[in-house]
Structures are given as structure tokens and as C-alpha cells.
Amino acid sequence: MRPRVRRHPPRWMATAVIVGVAATMGGCAADASSSTPAEGTVHSRSESQSQPESQSRRLSDLSASSVFDYQLGGTYDSLPTGSGTSIDIVVRDAGAAPLTGAYSVCYVNGFQTQPDEADRWRDHEDLLLHDAAGNLVVDPEWPDEHILDPSTAAQRSRILDIIGPMIDGCADRGFDAVEIDNLDTADRFPDIDRAGAMELAAAYVDRAHGRGLAIAQKNAAELTRTAHDDLGFDFAVAEECAAFAECDRYTDVYGDRVLAVEYPDTLAEAGLSFTDACTDPDRPPLMILRDRDLVVPDATDYLFERC
């Protein structure tokens, strides 16, 4: 089993989002639980069934000729090449504003807690994964993140009461799509009921589509067929697919609708250069190289290249 992708811990907890989360944690939203699928059922959806017509037209903006950027470590409006190159597609933290004129994707952590939200989630410990001794489980690579446990319908409903308004907030701020992180949690933590995790993912898809947002599968190459065909995800965000030789697992399912991000350290560990990644016949057209911390252009370690 390969090492887990070294995900950048996002910083999306802006003041407006924190206020909304605090409010929802104080009590369950009356309409959120109705979006949760019935226990044990994940319904297969065709693309035409899963997304509104207007959303389907916006997905056409994910074209192979677009300029894509991944901005979880700080936002900027154009690439610092020459006089500035416009950005057509961008992923930003949920606390940031979408980029005017670009297809803007909103990052939400749907299966783990955020680093600065652990204390709030401890007030809802029954929604977090515990080990056999009753202790809260943390991600060994990100020890300030707890793991959500969507194993029962009641837990999924209450998790959606908390995460659902974050998805709504992305729509309210004008994002076009949402990216849900840590879809692979159930595979990394076997104590989580995998069917329950897929049910929660389906509920996120329904919530996003209900607000007119497209929704991206994040990583979890082994789940692409299920994520698209059964759960209804519209496109994918794939980190390090070239480094781990799995780009075709995304493109076979999503075609050109794959936003691919490589990092120099992982490519080097795989004995690859970014040129190698770009010449791979299986690589998605929208592939970029970013610095590990996804910093802004005036930072020393900033790196951006595109195939």
C-alpha cells in the first residue's frame, strides 16, 4: 500500500465560516437531514440526472485549453508570467472569495476535521471515530485532524447538519463547484463503515447539486468509477497522479475533467521530472506543478508550471 498523499492542510476557516459553523453546531438544521440517503442505499445516477442543466453548461468551462491554478495557501488573481496571465479555473479555500471570471472551485474537508476546529468537534464526540480503547482517532500524518465517523444514518445526518451549510456558503459566495476532501477516509481507517462513508459522499453530492454547484471527487483513484457512476461526482481533483502512475484511473472515468496537481518532492521520489509527467500519454490535459505549501507568488518558495 502506497504512502498517503501528503495533503496540504487547508486554511479555509475565515471568520464568516467560523460563525456559520458555530451556529450549526449549536443545533441541527431542520432541512439538512432530508438530504441524507436512506441507510444502506446508494443510487446510481446518470450525468443528466445528477446535475441541473445550467450546471452542465458550466462544466464545459473545464476545457483542455484552460489555465488552471490551485490556491489553497493564498489567493491571487493572475499568474506572474510577463504582464500577468489570466486564470480560467481555480481551487480556493471555502473562506476565500471566488475569482471573478474564472470557474471557481471551493475546498471543503468533508470527512475529517480542520486543524483549528478540533475543539468544536470534540463537543460532538459521537460523530468522531474512536479506537478500541475509546480514544479519539487522529490522522497519523495530520495529528491535529480528527476523523469523522459516518457509519450510521443518525451520524451522517448530524455531520451533514454541520458540513452542509459550508457547502451552501460556497454557493452563496458565488463559487461554481465544490471539492470534497478525504473521500478515502474509510479505506485508510477500517473501523469506518465504508457503505456509510459512501452514503455521506452521496449526501454531499445531493447538497451541492441542490445549490447548483458541480462537485469534484478529490483523490481516491480507486473510487473513481463508484464516485462518478454511483455517487454522482462531476469531475475530479487529483494530486500526484503522475507520481503514483494513476492518472489514467481518473481520465478513464472523467475524461478531460480532471484538475491534476503535482508537487516537485513527490515527483523526485518517483524518479520523475515535471516534463516526464507532461509527456505521459495518460496525464490529464489540465496538469500543473505547484510548490508543496501552495504559497502566493511573492513568497520565496512559490512554484507554478503547466504542461
TrEMBL record:
Annotated keywords: Signal
Residues in the signal sequence: 1-29
Renumbered residue ranges of the record's region Disordered: 29-61
Pfam families registered for this protein in UniProt: Glyco_hydro_114
Keyword Nucleotide-binding found: no
SUPFAM superfamilies with a match to the protein in the record: (Trans)glycosidases
Listed PROSITE patterns: PROKAR_LIPOPROTEIN
Domain Glycoside-hydrolase family GH114 TIM-barrel: 68-294
Family matches, as Gene3D superfamilies: Aldolase class I
PANTHER family named in the record: ALPHA-1,4 POLYGALACTOSAMINIDASE, PUTATIVE (AFU_ORTHOLOGUE AFUA_3G07890)-RELATED, ALPHA-GALACTOSIDASE
Protein name: Endo alpha-1,4 polygalactosaminidase
Organism name: Brevibacterium spongiae
